[in-house]
Amino acid sequence: MTTVVATVVAPPQFPRLSVIAYRLPLRRPWRSAHVLRRERCGWLVRAELDGLAGYGDCAPLPEAGTETAEAARDRLEEWCRQAGSSPLAEQLDLLAGAARLRRGSAAVAEDQPVRPTALSSATPAADAALETALLDLDARRQRITLRARLLRDAPLFVPIPLPAVLPVNAALGAVTDCRPSALDMALSAGYSVLKLKVGVAPRDDEIRGLQALCDLLPPAVRLRLDANQAWSPAEAQQLLELLEPLSERIESLEEPLRPDPELTRHDAVLRALQAQAAFSIALDESLAGRGWPPTFADLPVRRLVLKPAVLGGLRSTLALAQAAQSAGLEVVITSLIESAAGLWASAQLAAAIGSPLAHGLATSDWLAADLGGAPTIEHGQLWLGETAGSGFTPTPSMHSRFA
Ligand SMILES: O=C(O)CCC(=O)c1ccccc1C(=O)O
Ligand SMILES: [Mg+2]
């Protein structure tokens, strides 16, 4: 006969998920090589348990490599209906394994638009938002920062303490839109890396604009350029020649080349551009087309720009960043001009990665309204603080919509 001394059934830890749609106008239009946007739309995801709440931002931006808004909404709805009533840890496991499950399921593949890439998820922005809300909640329950929570599951051990302060770049928009007054503001705010979009206006106008800006820069300040895949190989090579006299003032150049289905040919051009340039060339949106997970040993450039909403979550981005850094690559985390909920989480991820480079997380000024307070930036440094979770708190009006 067996004696049951005590049966302790732990209370099921089922978080309650809610999703609220939002629309945030931009202060001025955001221009890049392919699009002009006047607002950012998305969903704020909340995971609540025992009076604590975690938040995740889902603001798809297909031109940056996420799914469409429709696909993201369907995924959020489907998740809340099906997985949304599982325990917290189980939902996090499900999200980590979602890529494998989705590839194995013909039913899912039929009614979900599957992106023509081999990314970890067909709905990376929705998955990232769900994962972020759950991880944020879990961190708050354990009274640890989200960056500490992330490192608990990370593939590589990172010695603590983690940085609570991160260098970030100013996001100044298109070079031909950048007035000296905007430059002055960024300089007096203490930024030492200023990011500008190129490949938007005629080449000679952009070169003239860059020269004029460089003449106004103090010695320690450098420009980070982003062409968002605007140029042919010949145009990119010519651009680098024209930028040569300014090369000491340039910190890096993102995505110079227009996509080419022949990856070997594309990489040969990128390798030649990287050899020609005195600064780092970076891959950003094209990373999604390289198969999953990308291999780093023979990457033709020196730097990767990573966005968790494109890569399907904080954990997958952290794993990718650690692998890239181990292979000697530079890593930068950037925002998709997302709400404060997204920025706080991406900044926690950037802290966990421990890259010394400026991250592209100073974008909250582009929004004319926000879902909560964004992290403070002083002297070009973003302050994370030591509060449990991501640090995000919704505004009272946003909070009341969850009732
Ligand atoms: O990096 C920054 O500072 C701002 C973020 C940014 O440029 C961006 C924002 C939305 C979509 C794509 C990009 C990009 O880096 O290409
Ligand atoms: Mg970019």
UniProtKB/TrEMBL annotation:
Keywords: Lyase, Magnesium, Menaquinone biosynthesis, Metal-binding. SMART domains: MR_MLE. Residues 175-280 form the Mandelate racemase/muconate lactonizing enzyme C-terminal domain. Its EC number is 4.2.1.113. Mg(2+) binds at D226, E254, D284. The active site is at K197 (proton donor), K307 (proton acceptor). One of its GO terms (molecular function) is O-succinylbenzoate synthase activity. GO terms for biological process: menaquinone biosynthetic process. Converts 2-succinyl-6-hydroxy-2,4-cyclohexadiene-1-carboxylate (SHCHC) to 2-succinylbenzoate (OSB). This is o-succinylbenzoate synthase. It comes from Halochromatium glycolicum. The gene is menC.
